[in-house]
Amino acid sequence: MSSTSTVPTPEGPGSVWGAPHLPAGFTDTFTSRYVDTGEVRLHAVTGGGGPPLLLVHGWPQTWYAWRMLMPTLARDFSVVAVDQRGIGLSGKPQAGYDTATLASDLVALMDALGHQRFALYGTDVGMPIAYALAADHRDRVARLVVSEAPLPGISPSPPLFLPPQLNERLWHLAFNQLPKVNEQLVTGREDIFFGAEFDASAGTNKLPADAVRYYIDTLAAGPDQLRGSFGFYRAIPATSAQNQERKAQRLTLPVLAIGGGESSGEGVGNTMKLAADDVQTLVIPGCGHWVAEQAPDQLLAALTMFLAPYRDGPGS
Asked: How many of the other CB atoms lie within 10 Å of CB of 101?
């Protein structure tokens, strides 16, 4: 049985009390907590009031990616920003990184928090996790927002030879799947590897250096952090096989698909149209891959409009 009563309070840099440069008053609204799902202990940052909204971060980030959106969202929603299995302060078991398992983790989390039905936003690797949750647990998700990722097994695979700029952004998709040599090469060089990832995917407007440093320090904190960060990628073959089955039953709930104008662009919407019937699309001009940190105001405006029917009443 899921429980929040027998686990300690999260502390340290990965928690709300140890995260740098949060918006003013953030810790007055949000708290860190552990939730033991019975399979894995997850760290979630929760706060606000209203219908629940689950936020699922991308790679190589944590719940912290949502910090600029969360105070405004908390005015209308009970916000839950989770560290996925393997990431941040959440547990890092050896297995369970396919999207079916990752989605089940999140359903158990929301069960433990008392949220039967919720809106869901997943970005980057959080997008295929969110798709799996909406597809595998259709009675749980009211509205789905996704951004900045393909869906393995549904999206066409990128070619091996790419133009240099695309190769700089996408080469990690193969590298991260390696069983061991990637960890051997990156250990002790996390600043080089992850720093290059954040830079290449940002486009014109780079993320603040202190935010990038915070992510890198988290990933360099120990071998389990690095192993956990690659877990999703190493499970891509399993996820692809699962998605081949999922796409046979298309999603019917409302979907908002978002791309950065300097990154995935229309590709996110085109991807979701392969798997869902009711897809709205948005491309944010001048924005790279890190949409929640590079374009928070534009993203909040889009979320407010898309989630309004869910916020205002049932049946939407």
From this structure: 20
